[in-house]
Amino acid sequence: MEYLIFFERWVHFMAGILWIGLLYYFNFVQVPAMATAAADKDGPGPAAIGKYIAPKALLWFRWAAVVTWIAGAGLLGPNLGKAFLLQTGFVNIGIGAWLGTIMLFNVWVLIWPNQKKVLGMVQASDEEKNKAKRVALLASRTNTMLSIPLLFFMAAQSHGVF
Amino acid sequence: MNPLDSILGTIISGFVLTVILAFVAKAIGA
Fold it and tell me: What pTM, to 2 d.p., does this model score?
């Protein structure tokens, strides 16, 4: 059992770094770079990023989110309910679990379906694409914002709040 | 303007939310 917990913690951290690392890549690198590329009339444009990079990044991103959540749930094991109900001794990791769960929802329900429209993986009119772009951006920015307390509370479970 | 439209606004919002949640956590017994 101890070996399983060791393995789950390790997977949770590795997949979490992959997930949030790609989230920060999207927010701090790709989105601003796409805007710069679109504004640069003499440059190569943003099409290659959308065609070759974004789909691969999104593939790793969304599945890393699933693996992170499953490994985290496994790590909580029989304490999963206590965490989500914010019971004594599980308040900090419970807040972390709630934030992570909201973020997983955002990835699969808001970011991924809308990115498929933006990147042309599913049919969408220009108006639908514009709306999808806005929803995907705000969901992605929301997750970036939520990652800050998420990491704080994950560490606070072991180290205390203040 | 939505603070999430800028990266700086997003990060500041994240820190503010962290502080609020930290006090909430303390209040409910963390």
Answer: 0.95
